[in-house]
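Our preliminary data section would be incomplete without showing what the modeling component actually yields. Below, a chain of 211 amino acids is followed by its predicted structure, encoded as tokens that our downstream tools consume directly.
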Amino acid sequence: MTYDFALDKKSVISLIAGSVAIAALLFVAGLIVGRQWFGTDSVAVAHAAENERAALPTEPVLNEESASPPATPKAKPALPLPPKQAGEIPAEPAAPTAPVAVPGNVPPPQVVSEAATENADAAANAQPAESDYVTVQVGVFLDDKEAGRLLQQMESKGYRPSFFSGRDAESRQWYAVRIGVYSDKQQAANAAANFTKQEKLKAVVRPVESL
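Predicted structure:
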């Protein structure tokens, strides 16, 4: 018994066409699966990047010392005077020394009263110390490039910003952009409110020498 496996021309063409169709279907299926695979990976990477950005802090953690005003030093209690012995004569206050006349054109030295000294000390204490000055902070970043961009933006709008860098309570390096220096905290608060209203950016009052 013999079998005839000879194919005619029509069968050969049908076989080739079927093979081409199957190969095309496999190619299209591979493209679809690959696109879905890479699309899922890119979405996962994008979500991971967004979660990483959200995890970054937006404001520095301030030290408790800088957030709270310094404590006023307590005055030392006055020591009691020793009791007077019997028959002891109290000492009389010394009489003020009169100015001594100096021959020639040189005027005699002037005696400075205690009242004038107290007035001079009060005037010196009235002037605010350097640590009492505050400024308006319009932006703070962990990246110095972002702080530089905000600095240029403020300069282009006519402001005179300054650049400040410092570490917070967790030893992270921050870069701040600030505008103005004020000795009156209420005046600085009004300036910060006006800046926020005009530029639509958050502004806070901070000490000049710290975050």
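Residues 65-69 have pLDDT under 50 and may be disordered. The first strand starts at residue 134 and ends at 141. Preliminary results of this kind motivate Aim 1 of the renewal.
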